[in-house]
Amino acid sequence: QSALTQPPSASGSPRQAVTISCTGTSSDIGAYNYVSWYQQHPGKAPKLIIYDVTKRPSGVPDRFSGSRSGNTASLTVSRLQAEDEADYYCCSYAGSNNYVFGTGTKVTVL
Amino acid sequence: QVQLVESGGGEVQPGRSLRLSCATSGFTLNNYGIHWVRQAPGKGLEWVSVIWYDGSNQYYADSVKGRFTVSRYNSRSTVYLQMNSLRAEDTAVYYCARGTVRAPLDVWGQGTTVTV
């Protein structure tokens, strides 16, 4: 199972929006509604911020939103804040009880 | 509160074995699957394994299949990852995370470092 493809980096100024893409195949992202996104600050464990493509866990700000079109999922962070600077990973169920993560995107707040 | 704590990491020679533990608290382990995810130094996340809530099924990434074995003792609220025939490419921080089948990994431990 190959990793999902994400851009290595993305950036935006405070209060702007940034969108991160996550490209998979018809066997993972395109096949299941089980796409999740994780935020990871340096030296910390990942944190779930989006699940089932568009849903937000309790406590996650509504500045974070998810979507999908075909085999590509996207995470949008609106109204960027300094604390949003982190690595972001997508993840998809890939069938047969396998899961695949994205390559990761480093978001920089300018 | 819901918590997962990994332990058992360390430095080991290639070809040797290591067993990681994931101690859970704050929730009923019987109701949840547990995943193992690793992150090599400076690299991204890699899914490693999952064990179902009742231990009836275990699944592995191709990169560890045949070498790693996941097990659980719900009575001890602990999940284990037995790693045999370790290779240099297994060097990583290993995280355990809570998640049922096809569900997101909603709570993560702080990770334990394995160096081969």
Largest contact between chains:
A-B, 26 and 23 residues
Which overall shape of chain A is indicated by the principal axes computed on the Cα atoms? globular
- Largest pleated sheet of chain B: 7 strands, mixed
Give start-end ranges of low-pLDDT stretches of chain B: none
Average predicted local confidence, pLDDT of chain A: 96
Radius of gyration of chain B: 13 Å
Helix content of chain B: under 10%
Determine Rg of chain A (CA atoms, Å): 13 Å
Number of helices of chain A: 0
Terminal Cα span of chain A: 35 Å
| Ends apart, CA distance between termini of chain B | 33 Å
- From N to C, what is the helix and strand string of chain A? EEEEEEEEE
Please count the beta strands of chain B (DSSP E, at least 2 residues each).
11
* Largest sheet features of chain A: 6 strands, mixed
Structural class of chain B: mainly beta
Number of strands of chain A: 9
- The helix fraction of chain A, in percent, is under 10%
The best one-word shape of chain B is: globular
Strand content of chain A: 35-45%
Proportion of residues in β-strands of chain B: over 45%
Summarize the structure.
Chain A contains no helices and nine strands. With 110 residues, chain A is an all-beta fold.
How would you characterize this protein structure?
The complex is a heterodimer of chains A (110) and B (116). Chain A has 110 residues and is an all-beta fold. Chain A contains no helices and 9 strands. In chain A, strand 5 and strand 6 form a beta hairpin. The mean pLDDT of chain A is 96. With 116 residues, chain B is mainly β. In chain B, 0% of the residues lie in helices and 48% in strands. Chain B is built from no helices and 11 strands. In chain B, strands 2, 4, 5, 6, 9, 10 and 11 form a 7-stranded mixed beta sheet that branches. In chain B, strands 1-3-8-7 form a 4-stranded antiparallel beta sheet, with no helix packed on it. The mean pLDDT of chain B is 95. The chains are: A mainly beta (110), B mainly beta (116).
